[in-house]
Design a protein that fits this description.
Two copies of one chain form a homodimer. Chain A has 13 helices and twelve strands. In chain A, the strands form three sheets. In chain A, strands 2-8-7-6-5-3-4 form a seven-stranded mixed β-sheet, sandwiched between helices. Chain A has a three-stranded antiparallel β-sheet with strand order 9-12-11. Chain A has a two-stranded parallel sheet with strand order 1-10. In chain A, about 45% of the residues lie in helices and about 15% in strands. In chain A, strand 3, helix 5 and strand 4 form a beta-alpha-beta unit. Chain A starts with 11 loop residues before the first helix and ends with a helix. The radius of gyration of chain A is 22 Å and the shape is globular.
Chain lengths: ~400, ~400
């Protein structure tokens, strides 16, 4: 049950960027660092496999849990068991199904801000009587465990983490992961891991996803440039959870698109695309580090995914004003930090999954705008005390 | 929130038929009248348009409401407004979203049995505190309005109808539709119409779907043989409902597959496929009428879609036994009536969207089995009183 009055438009992220893309189509040459989508077309080989799957008859209903062949490929990759995986129409449906199953009335779920804006809405839609606890990351985007422990109690049912993280590009380290898992086991809650950027971690980590307190979900959207295709998956070693997921999938969705499942399962048998993409992204982070350092602008270098979250405090602008003025003056679209949490209005997110030319031009324009606004901010501070004296 | 203990496997329909299909693949030559899927491949032209849409870049996120071009095609077909339509990943998600929005605690929803088995689960998942009222159709599969009126009260929020109807193949007539609508306006409830077989009504009807008490949803699955693709839509002239649907779609699904939306919108501009399919189905109903009449087996001839619901009372078998024995002896798969409602255990559903050869062979085997079991039933009745006398 949802109340009509509770529904407010909250799709700045999508609408702003679709506006930017429209302007691009009108030859306004807007560089979009806005939406979380890579710039490239899907791999040719994958497109051919889609066509092949359709022609080979993969157009009918399939099992609600998903095609065995795709679950086998995913199982192989993570050392999962195929019976512990459910294929979903993307990562959002995976999380929605999990929240629907796990969040009972009065249960508490902790998530970290800045965060992906849909989380709080997904929680509300799963159970409006569950309580969500926003927990802010530190200034260097890590978890303060002593503060976190104060938020954990008997009602804590889930801690939701996203790694690599949207919008900061940070990756949880193994020590923090283990500490979280210890807390989960001690206090009997689940850790749900949003791993949609998991294939884009620059330096590999080794996490234990097989623990029964861990539930993992991910998608194929971000790595292959197929955000609009809608295909993802979830994993849990708890068979009750998997059975409940199958039940919901069966009655709410029937199944995830059959030919896409077949095509992707064939594609995963021999995929070097993601390694190349990851390497390109990492090179861009080196460039980011160099340019920002040179201009003495602080940046937390991303460790995975394709987002950087940049502090704009020096410009004295709120994040939505910064984004609007940057788009207006320099035709560069970024996402205001305030969309990822009220306390993050001094930040903007850039998506650097763009081609090299756009990246170089866009970052230079960004820096130029930043420096202009920084100078203005310094000057206005100098003027203000003077005018105060005059008045 | 759902309880693990409430989750019971209820996918006989899918599993039975997938077993039948597997046997088919093993060259066991099973004729499947089981699952609600047409036998053919998707139209070649549509498959080409899918490939074209992918190659033209329709692989990214799109608006949660759906591509304008597809909404325009749907609007044109029904005289809807494009802003009143939301594209969903099939009919089931459309209904789930609507139930989620409309069903508040203690609200009542009436649906007619026999019915599509997912309805009750979808209602439970949308709001376990809503009450569902099963209302049985008459023996000729129509609505007894004087009985129905007794079920309507202040808490009645929704009446859910499916026309053409699964499993009976009956179509609501305009007079009954108007009577329902009058009741809806008088008692302030919504009529949700499941129109997934709407394109397969043999004789056209003229319904007023534009009334604010009517919500309509449908899919492209059944007409084009694309049940596994997952694409459908919903319509309401109530803008609050549409806004709520967009909100849920945004946060639970992001959007429906983008290239499918583009391909189908192009395809609908010039589609003669469904007219041919409908005509083939209607011819099969003429054959059904002829064969059943000849064998003196009662049948309500379908008026749309591709199901017939056949009374098997004369065979003295429960519907699941009938289905099991028919598959075992004659390699013909049908769906037991009990899956569509407890009181319909004297019926089996056949899906006649099969090719002509399978249709002819399958129906002949069905009739042969039916007659054998009918004879056995008559003989066992004759024997029983005799044995009673002896004992």
């Amino acid at each position: 049950m949802i109340k009509f009055s509770n529904i407010k438009p909250d799709n700045f992220s999508l609408e702003f960027s679709s506006l930017a893309r429209e302007k691009n189509q009108n030859n306004d040459k807007i560089i979009s660092f806005g939406l979380g989508e890579p710039y490239f077309k899907p791999p040719d080989k994958l497109v051919k496999l889609v066509n092949k799957a359709i022609n080979n008859g993969f157009n009918r209903y399939c099992h609600p849990q998903g095609l065995l062949s795709l679950r086998q490929q995913i199982a192989k990759k993570y050392s999962f068991l195929e019976e512990n995986i459910v294929i979903t129409a993307g990562a959002k449906p995976a999380l929605s199904i999990l929240l629907k199953i796990l969040l009972h009335d009065k249960d508490e779920i902790i998530f970290f801000e800045p965060c992906f804006p849909s989380y709080r809405h997904q929680i509300h839609l799963a159970n409006p009587k569950a309580k969500f606890i926003r927990f802010n990351l530190t200034k260097n985007f890590s978890i303060n465990f002593s503060n976190l422990k104060k938020k954990i109690n008997k009602k804590t049912k889930i801690i939701l983490i996203n790694s690599p993280h949207n919008p900061t590009g940070q990756v949880i380290n193994e020590a923090d992961f283990e500490d979280l898992l210890k807390l989960a086991k001690k206090h009997k809650f689940y850790i749900i891991i949003d791993g949609v950027y998991n294939d884009l971690i620059y330096k590999p980590y080794n996490y234990n996803y097989l623990d029964k307190n861990i539930i993992y979900f991910s998608s194929f959207s971000k790595v292959y440039g197929i955000t609009g295709w809608r295909i993802g998956y979830l994993h849990s070693t708890n068979q009750q959870i998997i059975n409940a997921c199958k039940y919901i999938q069966m009655h709410v969705n029937t199944n995830t698109n059959t030919f896409l499942q077949k095509a992707i399962s064939d594609y995963l048998k021999n995929d070097d695309f993601k390694i190349k993409f990851r390497s390109k992204l990492q090179k861009k982070t080196f460039l980011l580090e160099k340019i920002f350092k040179k201009n003495q602008i602080q940046i937390n270098i991303p460790m995975g995914g394709f987002f950087a979250f940049i502090c704009i405090k020096e410009t004295n602008l709120m994040s939505d004003d910064f984004a609007f003025l940057l788009l207006k003056k320099y035709d560069v679209a970024v996402t205001p930090g305030v969309l990822f949490g009220k306390k993050w209005d001094n930040y903007v997110r850039i998506c650097f999954a763009v081609n090299n030319k756009d990246f170089n031009q866009g970052i230079n324009k960004f820096i130029q705008f930043y420096n202009e606004k920084k100078t203005q901010a310094i000057n206005s501070k100098r003027i203000k005390p003077l005018s105060n004296k005059i008045s």
